[in-house]
Amino acid sequence: MGGAWITWPLQRLLAARGHLFPFAPVGVGTGVGLWFSLPVEPAPSAYLLCLAGLVALLPLARRDLAQAPALFLACLLAGVIAAGLRAHLVQGPMLQGRYYGPVTGRVVEVDRSQTDALRVTLDRVALDRVPPGRTPLRARISLHGDQSVFTPKPGQVVMVTANLAAPEGPVEPGSFDFRQMAYFEGLGAVGYTRSPMLLWQEPAAGEQWIGQLRSRLTLAIQSRIAGDAGAFAAGAMTGDRSGLSLDAVQALRDSSLAHLLAISGMNLAFLIGFVFSLLRYGLALLPYVALRIDTRKLAALVSLGVASFYLLLSGANVATERAFIMVLVMLGAVLFDRRAITLRSVSLAALILLLWQPEALLAPGFQMSFAATIALIAGFEAINARLPAGLSRLRREALVLVVSSLIGGLATAPYAAAHFNRFADYGFLANLLTVPVMGAVVMPAGAMAALLAPVGLADAPLWVMGQGAGWILYVARLVAGIEGAVTAIPAPPPWVLPVLTLGLLWAMLWRGGGRFAGLPLVALALVFWAKSGRPALLVTPDARLAGLLGPEGRALSKPKGGGFAAKTWLENDGDLAPQDQAAARAGFVPDPLGLRFTLNGQRGLMLVPKADLAGRDPCTLADIVILPAEATGKGCLLIDLTLLSRTGAVAVYDDLRLVPTRSARRLWSP
User: Fold this and answer.
1) Strands, E, within 128-185: which ranges?
2) N or C: where does the chain have the smaller number of CB atoms within 10 Å of the terminal CB?
3) What does the angle CA 411 – CA 416 – CA 417 come to, to the nearest 5 degrees?
4) In terms of Cα–Cα distance, which of 264, 287, 284 is closest to 276?
5) Domain named DUF4131: which ranges (predicted)?
């Protein structure tokens, strides 16, 4: 009897053996996630142990009952090994301390920062008085002040006097780790300048040619389509979104339409779908060709070339690479006479990407695009059998549009809420009104403009493209302007999203009634998300900004400065208030030495940088003392620069439990 309980799950796995391939990337992703969650960097012996375990599992995979568990564990170990290998391969120097002085480098990317400032990313960086071995491989600089001297373009070698520092880590425990992301991008320094950037050298022949082509195409599109519509059209075709105004970007975010501007799976699918259909059905009109050549395969080959060029043109960022891999798998299925869009093909794309770029697992784009794709495939498999047989084509297409928007929106909502702390209440309506225009107008018109540009006939399709882009921006602004268009969502605890994902994946990937076993995990994650508490007090690493949770929301210690930390804290609270409004809330009371506050009955004091203590122990002033200097004291919770240099930003809870941000020691740690 006892043995039957043990073998029953294995028997079920054996019976489902032909449908278990989609769980391979789940296993790899679990291994990658475990690797990133480790508090210390694994020693080389740990990877050798994983490799030995992987080899030991292979014989077990030949046994029927043990096959599925053995292969899943093998995938998990492969994920750990892939993540460790990738982290060591991309390792590069991070800037030590702060730097102010001349910076020379080659422009590889031009975009805009969150404050709408023009921003350049440089490689081949040279810094004064910094040895080459300690010089970051890449640096990103925001351009403030008068920058009318010239507009930087990819391939140019430029000089500028800038303030630089290493990328910062999380601004509170468990929040987004910019330093980790920068490590995998090879970005070792970020900063700003108020001095004019100067051209040192024009691009060498053939150097950064794709970046130069992107820049020329962007200018050509914007010269024919004015305003934000032209910037949107250029962004959709070339990936250069630097011309889009901050107002338009915010409207797209608040209406849940920002994904239309990302060079992601949907944009690439629209473009390749149009090219594939144009070639396949165009060649079918030529009987001599249609009778002698498989037009589907020829169209797939040409579409693959177009997709490869589009990948290079758009900058080959992570989202575009992910979309390209998915398109590559699907076009490959056409070439080998397989179904193009199945859970197996999507799983293969995820598997390739996770083994190639394991850090992609943590990216919101990866999570949202695969969640939407898997949900759409699983959803339509269930719906197709239930559609009325006599449904007209028009009604069927309308129903598909509504259902696909609904499924895609529901599948991505938890990830958008977790990463961006907001839910666009009218996003479903906005997508219904714009996605068809993006797929049937904007991307096809862009493709036709590229096709006709060599013969000087691009103006007409560009005009059509501009009308479509204008409509999308009109809908974005209209929807974003509705009262209550955005609902703020507090950030979940770090473990909630992985548990939620595993539950959803089981529910979508498993065949039969057993899929409902994933729902308790989903429910558990949502309950703990809803009941999770937020830190009572947050302090930045320089001790110059603090946030105190109160009845009105989080009160901030100052209305300006530390803007990124302030914005992140408020968003993670589920609070859409700007920093100056949060600073006006009750919580901090001015004092000759700084700001006084109360936390769960304990007296708190945040000292100003040059507070004169007259030799007193800071702990005699309050029970909780925040001091932007190094100090010693006994009998209080002292948060000074000595502590913060070890911990990074800190969170303090009602029971005065202090949680550091910098608790792990990894390759990207300071």
Assistant:
1) 138-143, 157-165
2) N
3) 105
4) 284
5) 45-196
Q: Is 487 helix (H, G, I), strand (E, B) or coil?
A: strand
pLDDT for 263 equals 61
189 confidence band (pLDDT: 50, 70, 90): very high
The answer to whether 135 and 183 are in contact (CB under 8 A) is: no
Cα first-last separation, the chain: 55
For residue 215, CA distances in Å to 111, 156, 235, 306 come to 11, 12, 11, 19
Q: Which two tokens stand for residue 10?
A: 């294995």
pLDDT at 502: 94
Half-sphere exposure of 410 (CA within 13 A, CB side): 10
Q: How far is CA 179 from CA 85, 125, 128, in A?
A: 19, 19, 23
Task: State both tokens at 607.
Answer: 């000292």
User: Tokens 């797209």 identify what position?
Assistant: 252
Distance CA 28, CA 354 (A): 7
Residue 311: pLDDT band (50, 70, 90) is confident
Q: Cβ(177)–Cβ(568) under 8 Å?
A: no
Element (H, E) at 351: helix 343-356
Q: What residue type is 374 in one-letter code? A: I
The strands making up 658-660's β-sheet, listed across from edge to edge, are: 553-556, 546-550, 537-539, 650-652, 658-660
Ordered by start, the domain boundaries in the chain are 2-89, 99-207, 214-487, 496-531, 537-660
- Give the span between the Cα atoms of 446 and 263, in whole angstroms: 14
Cα separation, 334 vs 327, whole angstroms: 11
Report the DSSP beta bridge partners of residue 157: 106, 201
Q: Which SS3 state, helix, strand or coil, does residue 437 take?
A: helix
* CA-atom Rg of the chain in angstroms: 27
CATH: 2.40.50, 2.60.40, 1.10.20, 2.20.25. Which one for 99-207?
2.40.50
User: Which of 260-269, 450-459, 468-477 is the least confident region?
Assistant: 260-269
* Cα distances (Å, whole numbers) of residue 283 to 291, 292, 459: 10, 11, 26
**Cα dist. 346→214, 339, 351 in Å?**
29, 11, 9
214-235 as b/e: b if 16+ CB within 10 A:
bbebbbbbbebbebbbbbbbbb
- Distance CA(429)–CA(432), nearest Å, equals 5
Chain Cα centroid distance, residue 92: 22
- What is the rounded distance in angstroms from the CA atom of residue 372 to the CA atom of residue 574? 24
